[in-house]
């Protein structure tokens, strides 16, 4: 099977390994990636959930900013929670650097203390919101799902973001992984 798709999960920090079962259940290959030679082997990126400030520090420390920006132009990218923050055009609370792949504003840790972490059902699938951000401003992006009145799953072109974690639910593949892998397939064909 040499036309099998390979999905790379950026492995600097955060929830990397839980994606493996979902990606494999959707028929693609999982790779944990952190160097240019790893990036060259994959068809698409997942930027996992974790802590966006820590990820930014590590991207700087390993001098990966320009390399990643170049890769993201050529491949589909799905950012989850902290990964969605890295993809946004504008980040608030506080402002921080981001790749600007999706024309959205995103506010970090925006659900407040009581709802810091909670489970919700999105498109019939249980997902985890963990110190999740809120997308406050969308411009020309398609809103795939909303939760409590805010967009929580958006996409535009080859890019997609979810403010929640589907990979921590063990019913594989999640509809979000399936959707992303279909997107990667279509991107390869077009
Ligand atoms: N609160 C984290 C941040 O601001 C994101 C949390 C997550 O990825 N689950 O980066």
String of helices and strands = EHEHEHHEHEEEEEEEEH
CATH fold name = Rossmann fold
> Mind telling me the C-alpha Rg?
15 Å
CATH architecture: 3-Layer(aba) Sandwich
Structural class: alpha/beta
Average pLDDT, to the nearest integer? 96
CATH superfamily: Class I glutamine amidotransferase (GATase) domain
Our estimate of the beta-strand percent is: 25-35%
Number of domains: 1
Give me the side-by-side strand order of the main sheet.
2-1-3-4-12-11-10
In one word, what is the shape? globular
Could you give the distance between the termini? 20 Å
Catalogue the ligands: glutamine
Low-confidence stretches: none
Major sheet description:
7 strands, mixed
Number of strands: 12
Helix content range: 25-40%
Output the CATH class name: Alpha Beta
Number of helices: 6
Characterise this structure.
There is one protein chain. It contains six helices and twelve strands. It is α/β, with parallel strands linked by helices. The chain has one domain (6-189): Class I glutamine amidotransferase (GATase) domain (Rossmann fold), CATH 3.40.50. It is globular, with a radius of gyration of 15 Å. It binds glutamine. Glutamine binds at residues 49-52, 81-82, 85, 108-109, 130-131.
